[in-house]
Amino acid sequence: MAILVTGGAGYIGSHTIVQLLEEGQQVIVIDDLSNSHLEVFNRIKAITAKEVVFIEGDVSDKHLLAGIFKKFDITSVIHFAGFKAVGESVANPLMYYQNNINCSLTLFACMQEFNCKEIVFSSSATVYGDPETVPITEQSALSATNPYGQTKLMIEYILKDIAIADPAMRIAILRYFNPVGAHPSGLIGEDPNGIPNNLVPFVAKVAIGELPKVYVFGDDYDTPDGTGVRDYIHVVDLATGHLAALKKIKDHVGCAVYNLGTGQGNSVLEVIKTFADVAGRDIPFQISARRAGDIATCYASVESTTAALNWSAKADLKQMIKDHWHWQQKNPKGYKSVH
Ligand SMILES: NC(=O)c1ccc[n+]([C@@H]2O[C@H](COP(=O)([O-])OP(=O)(O)OC[C@H]3O[C@@H](n4cnc5c(N)ncnc54)[C@H](O)[C@@H]3O)[C@@H](O)[C@H]2O)c1
Question: What is the pTM of this model?
């Protein structure tokens, strides 16, 4: 009995694998390393004293994937593999539709062929588009404002249709809010290529002196300090949410959707201030114009997730930033620091 983790060399996948190994699960990883490094597996081993089976390759490669299902007794899948940068998806939509949709279709077909019924899928709060009200519940209206979000919505619809066609399927769709932080060991964390798209990794690069200042896009939103409010969740809490979802689908057929957030919102200025306090240094920032497509406030209702999965996020913003900073200081150049 093994769990197949697609995209397991990435940020959220690697943290989830640590939790799975610590629970004694056998883990098989497929990743093409398009946005990750082999070094992550040495780090996972350093944390857990356990190893995964790693297969380097594209999830869209059906022969490779079928070979994995033939060789190992895969009982469930956690599907992280995909591209995730919103801006890049706007500039290059085909690349996003091709990769995210193709690898999902290949994976789902292979699961069907090998009679694998359990899957946990990485969706995103981006499927709520510009929400009319907060907190956002799983029943809030869905829409996509960019090709990345479209791919997440499409994959959600595909999974819902698969669950209708095959009542034995057990599917959990997890809509993540804003994952940040790193494993407390400082051995694994987020290692974005180039200039980070997300706020916390960007602030970390400013704190370490790699970037000169943080740009705050808009201070005239209808929020307590005028800057955008988001629901940040510690990546280790997110990881444990996957284990809770895997447990849940063991005794529940069908397709269910769960928000993974803290249910709390924090503003851009709060994040910068908390980072400055934790790091004990000034974080220069500059207020600039609003960014097209950004929304004022986004945070989750986690009531139904807490009730259904018996899970809730534990870490507060300070802890998330402490762990992020620890990782950043230990690995100023990410996983490339070792070479
Ligand atoms: N990090 C976030 O802010 C966030 C928020 C919401 C949802 N998500 C979703 O969660 C999942 C994981 O996100 P992450 O932050 O860990 O991203 P990541 O880029 O760190 O991890 C994704 C992994 O998938 C691999 N990959 C991509 N395409 C592949 C393919 N065709 N075949 C094999 N491997 C492939 C990459 O090499 C990478 O290791 C993604 O699906 C992402 O869209 C992330």
Answer: 0.98
